[in-house]
Design brief:
The structure holds 2 protein chains of 2 kinds.
Chain A (H helix, E strand, L loop, with lengths): L1 E2 L11 H13 L10 H20 L8 E4 L2 H12 L5 E5 L4 H12 L3 E5 L9 H7 L4 E7 L11 H10 L3 E5 L18 E5 L11 E5 L40 H17 L1 H20 L4 E4 L11 E5 L4 H12 L1 E2 L1 E3 L4 H7 L6 E4 L7 H16 L1
Parallel strand pairs in A: 1-11, 3-4, 3-5, 5-6, 6-7
Antiparallel strand pairs in A: 2-8, 7-8, 9-10, 10-13, 12-13
Helix pairs in contact in A: 1-7, 2-7, 3-4, 8-11, 9-11
Chain B lengths: L3 E5 L3 H13 L4 E5 L10 E6 L3 H10 L6 E5 L3
Antiparallel strand pairs in B: 1-3, 1-4, 2-3
The chains are: A alpha/beta, B alpha+beta.
Chain lengths: ~375, ~80
């Protein structure tokens, strides 16, 4: 079996992730931050160590500004629903996932201001168009770091400069890049960095979170839910301290233990090394696909400009047929269709049919790439 | 003079952060249940050698760790 669906969730996980999760249940199964006994303390320490690992991955100076959440969708909703007030304008791109687009369309339906900057058919953001759209009335600029459909990497530094010049904050959806593309949150001027734990960060599903940049005043960001935090228990009001303000209820300790181990794996291997591996595989994939008659490749078409996410179609074959045959006949697992990103597919001209998405990961080999290319060639000739 | 002191915190994340910062600096500290005569928001406190009080203050301030207070602890 060859797993090429790492853009949906990474697989396999490093063995240390599985061990850390079993260890958590066996050796530190208390409720973190709730009690003073050894199992509660052990659990709190595991949570803190994971926070430190995430902070190190993104070069965040204060680990307590790393907020854990069930997934990146929760983190994105936390900002979009906790920050925006009547009269605010939001600017985003036409390459966003529904985790951004759906909360923003709901915001718009309730009277909120929204402008969507149209990207090119190759999925590229026109930075001048963004510059012309962002103005002093803009409260928030929301961009994906890389498209989950075409892999296009967005020019974060330029986007941050445009947002900040207008006095707006920048929210980055790093679902596709955290752990596989170097991210320096302070240097790149990312005010809100939303991440998922179960993709490039190598953690289990059910983990993700939000990093609050130093420029963000937490008093401006309302929590999505309120409840018990183990702190300030004498008060019936939600505490303001971080990370407690945004982490009500018993956390997913077992998942966060796995996330911490996954991020340590990535840090030990090196994000730059993972990135180099994925650029090489993406280059091979693109070159191979170009040599197969009937294949159309979407996106920028150059590995340096994208993550390891290649969208393509095969003339004369529906994407669902190709996906099914890759799985049934060749044991190759991909994701076909719209990838929860209708706006992106409209932008690149593949709506409503979608594409075949090939997403190698840190554990994919060159031989895996040769096999997928051979399989697509066989299907193309049939 | 007391042999030990305890640091109190508003939340357990700060207690863990203090533990990590101080242990990395080579200081002898231990997470203990908050002594009952001291009120605290958080169930755990960090016990330390009282003679390191000044050094600990400096380190925690440098790392911007939120501390609710430091109290001498009489040895029983």
């Amino acid at each position: 079996m060859i797993y090429l669906d790492n853009a949906a969730t990474s697989w396999p996980k490093p063995p240390e992730v599985l061990r850390a999760m079993a260890d958590f249940l066996e050796c530190s199964g208390g409720n973190p931050g709730r009690s003073g006994h050894r199992l509660s303390v052990a659990a709190a320490r595991v949570m803190y160590n994971a926070r430190e690992a995430v902070a190190e991955l993104f070069n965040v100076p204060d680990p307590l500004r790393v907020i854990f959440a069930p997934n990146v969708t929760y983190a994105l909703n936390l900002v979009l629903r906790g920050l925006l007030k009547a009269g605010d304008q939001v600017v985003t791109t036409s390459m966003e996932h529904n985790s951004v687009m759906r909360p923003l369309r709901a915001w718009q339906a309730s009277g909120g201001g929204l402008k969507v900057v149209r990207c090119s058919r190759e999925g590229r953001l026109d930075i001048e168009c963004l510059r012309a759209t962002v103005n002093p009335g803009t409260r928030l600029v929301v961009v994906t770091h890389a498209s989950n459909v075409t892999g296009n990497l967005m020019p974060l530094a330029e986007i941050a400069a445009i947002a900040h010049r207008a006095g707006a904050l920048l929210l980055v959806d790093a679902a596709q890049t955290a752990g596989v593309v170097p991210i320096d949150q302070p240097a790149q001027g990312i005010d809100f960095l939303a991440f998922t734990g179960h993709k490039g960060m190598q953690g289990p599903p059910g983990t993700g979170g939000l990093v609050l940049g130093e420029a963000v005043d937490a008093a401006q960001l309302q929590p999505l839910i309120r409840g018990g935090t183990g702190s300030g228990s004498e008060f019936e009001e939600q505490p303001e301290m971080l990370p407690d303000k945004y982490e009500s209820g018993t956390p997913n300790g077992v998942g966060i233990a796995g996330l911490g181990a996954g991020v340590r794996y990535v840090l030990n291997r090196g994000v730059a090394a993972v990135r180099a591996h994925e650029v090489e595989l993406t280059g091979l994939l693109l070159a191979g696909l170009r040599g197969i008659p009937g294949v159309t490749i979407y996106g920028p078409g150059s590995a340096a400009e994208m993550t390891a996410v290649v969208s393509c179609c095969l003339v004369g074959h529906s994407v669902s047929e190709v996906g099914e045959r890759l799985d049934e006949e060749f044991g190759i697992l991909t994701r076909v269709g719209l990838h929860c990103a209708p706006a992106a597919h409209k932008t690149i001209g593949t709506f409503p049919d979608g594409t075949i998405r090939l997403a190698p990961g840190p554990f994919t080999s060159q031989s895996d790439i040769h096999q997928i290319l051979r399989a697509i060639e066989v299907i193309a000739r049939s | 003079m007391s042999a030990y002191g305890v640091l109190l915190f508003h939340n357990s994340s700060s207690a863990m952060q203090a533990e990590a910062v101080l242990m990395r600096a080579g200081l002898k500290v231990k997470l203990v249940p908050t002594p009952r005569h001291l009120s605290s928001d958080c169930g755990v406190a960090l016990r330390f050698d009282w003679e390191s009080n000044t050094e600990i203050d400096t380190l925690l301030a440098k790392h911007r760790v939120d501390v609710a207070g430091a109290y001498p602890l009489d040895r029983k």
